[in-house]
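#structure-requests
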Amino acid sequence: MTRTYRTIDGVLLLDKPLELSSNTALQKVRRLFHAEKAGHTGTLDPLATGLLPICFGEATKFSNVLLDADKTYRAMLRLGQTTTTGDAEGEVTGECLAEPQRTEVEAVLAKFLGETRQLPPMYSALKHKGKPLYEYIRSGETVERELRNILIHELVLNRFASNEIDITVRCTKGTYIRTLAEDIGAALGCGAHLIGLCRTAIAHLNLHDAYSLQQLESMTAAERDDCLRPLEYLMPDMPKLQLDDTQVKRLAQGQRLALDAGLPDGKVNLQGSQGFVGVGLLQGRRLAPYRLLSHVAKQAAKTCSGQNIGLE
């Protein structure tokens, strides 16, 4: 039986289950919605669970607004053991009797707050010469990596019991929680590795609003469609700028507009007579198109074909 796919636009917040890759989760959701086009924002390891935003159709154009966003994780660490991978998948490389006091743990966590530099792990999807680092390590190679600047905004000890600690981390993009777990263990003098990880937030998007695969599978097609958020859900804090139809057409043709928007420089949420039309880039009194909805560009090309509406 031939599967029929449809054009849909919107954002779905998925609670990715354990032991499922981000791409496998994406394909399962895409088939459930019979969507022609879909993509996710921010890969989660198979052993990590939690928030995985899925973008359908036109939303894939604007998913990059989340790339630089802060992320929040709930992480479980086992003290007293180090592994080859920094998590529970690897082989144990060292063991130490772990008996730190809660005050010691809290003092160590406080040292990791703020700006710091972190060495990406070899067991990661970070690419070197077009190939993920984990492919090098599988063949016995080690690649020299550069320290990366990261910023940890929040690091809270939720629970401390025996040789395990439960922490919440809010950090900038590019932060490896496995590496943070190893660094915390080293600072405590007993070693540590990651045994559980859940992403609970990306910027304003929250796991509390996400749906599991089981929930989606039990819904009717109409109920699933009701779970989708509009494209603007990706950019709630972006300043809005109202444009008339002629201005929208000019932007859709690649032209820049001269106007006094009264807004700070940067990306702006563009609103036309029918609502959201895309994102523009404002620099001084000049507005340039950044990413526009496909139908806006097509309509502008059709209605303005052959017309000379002039540049700024």
